[in-house]
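Postdoc handover notes: sequence design on the structure in folder B. Input tokens:
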């Protein structure tokens, strides 16, 4: 699964590697990778691979799940399609409560004690998805874990998830993307070490000059 999804994401440039011309994230960090999993929604074959794989993750790793909750906004469509495949209820969680109407942060029916799986497109440092988990827990849900499309596997993100006692299963990850990208000639073999160096410590820009 990891290699299949990695090939899919690279093929449609949902994940784009550019070690020689790094991107700049909003945080100011220079990055050799850019990820936009929204592109999977406009590529039907890839979209089907992604949603079927997310459904399989839910069935295999979270068999007691009763509700899927997407992260706003990127996880909403994936949660909806996956829920449709599994014939399950779904909803989504806003980054904050609305300032009008019923002032909901959680959209969709959710009962106290419901067993929930969060559907997320991308995990880097883990901060935003943990906020979603905490909102669901505050509403009385039992969060079984996260099913995500891609994770960087950064130390900070892994530590945050562990501290919050949150399980995450990703369809693919940074290391798999790097291996597949080298095999498929998206990057040079010698670039692999530089990319892993970035993943190990994104704030250390020495990989750029390597």
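Designed sequence:
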């Amino acid at each position: 699964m990891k290699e299949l999804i990695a090939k899919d994401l690279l093929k449609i440039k949902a994940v784009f590697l550019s070690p020689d011309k790094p991107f700049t994230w909003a945080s100011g960090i220079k990055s050799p990778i850019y990820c936009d999993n929204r592109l999977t929604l406009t590529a039907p074959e890839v979209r089907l691979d992604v949603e079927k794989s997310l459904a399989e993750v839910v069935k295999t790793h979270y068999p007691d799940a009763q509700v899927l909750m997407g992260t706003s906004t990127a996880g909403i469509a994936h949660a909806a399609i996956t829920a449709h495949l599994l014939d399950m209820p779904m909803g989504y969680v806003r980054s904050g409560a609305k300032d009008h109407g019923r002032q909901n942060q959680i959209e969709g029916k959710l009962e106290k004690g419901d067993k929930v799986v969060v559907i997320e497109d991308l995990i880097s440092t883990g901060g935003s998805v943990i906020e979603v988990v905490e909102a669901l827990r505050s509403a009385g849900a039992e969060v079984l874990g996260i099913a995500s499309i891609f994770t960087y596997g950064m130390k900070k993100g892994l530590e945050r998830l562990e501290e919050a006692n949150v399980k995450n299963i990703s369809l693919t990850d940074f290391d798999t993307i790097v291996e597949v990208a080298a095999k498929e000639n998206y990057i040079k073999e010698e670039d692999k070490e530089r990319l892993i160096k970035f993943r190990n410590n994104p704030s250390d820009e020495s990989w750029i000059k390597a």
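Context for whoever picks this up: The first helix runs from residue 2 to 11. Don't rerun without checking with the PI first.
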